[in-house]
Specification:
Layout lengths: L21 H27 L3 H21 L2 H19 L13 H20 L15
Helix pairs in contact: 1-2, 1-3, 2-3, 2-4, 3-4
């Protein structure tokens, strides 16, 4: 006895996965590149004006990830720039054959790396989640 309401055919996990539209895929790719650029800029900025540069770099990452998640309306909007940031920063941590490196073994570099990962996880968690199509789950009184 459904009471006249249209029940969804199953949970959101039971629905088949669909690839994103071309526009959404382009948006995610652009956000990924923007996150990578922000990671490189933050890596250069944070040692220059420590501790202000570190706070500015982490605030910029948080702003990009939160803003992208809200603009896209889905969690993927926040994850794409976070992945771009992480990839760029990890690639910058490797040393070159000449012995050059960008990150020194200091507290600022470790705070930037670990703080940036924490900011990315927090922003991805706070991003809106796609809701399944269907009626409200609230009971009517």
């Amino acid at each position: 006895m459904s009471g006249g309401r249209n029940e969804p055919p199953g949970s959101a996990l039971a629905q088949p996965l669909r690839p994103p539209s071309l526009g959404r895929a382009a948006l995610y790719a652009g956000l990924f590149v923007l996150g990578a650029v922000l990671g490189v800029a933050g890596a250069l900025l944070q040692p220059a004006w420590f501790p202000g540069g570190l706070l500015l770099a982490l605030a910029a990452e948080a702003g990009l990830c939160l803003g992208a998640g809200r603009a896209a309306g889905r969690r993927g909007g926040a994850v794409a720039p976070a992945l771009g940031w992480a990839l760029a920063v990890v690639l910058l941590t490797t040393s070159r054959p000449e012995g050059d490196f960008l990150f020194a073994a200091g507290a600022g570099s470790y705070l930037f790396l670990l703080g940036g990962i924490a900011v990315a996880v927090i922003c991805a968690t706070l991003a809106p989640v796609r809701q399944p199509d269907g009626g409200s789950a609230r009971l009517r009184k």
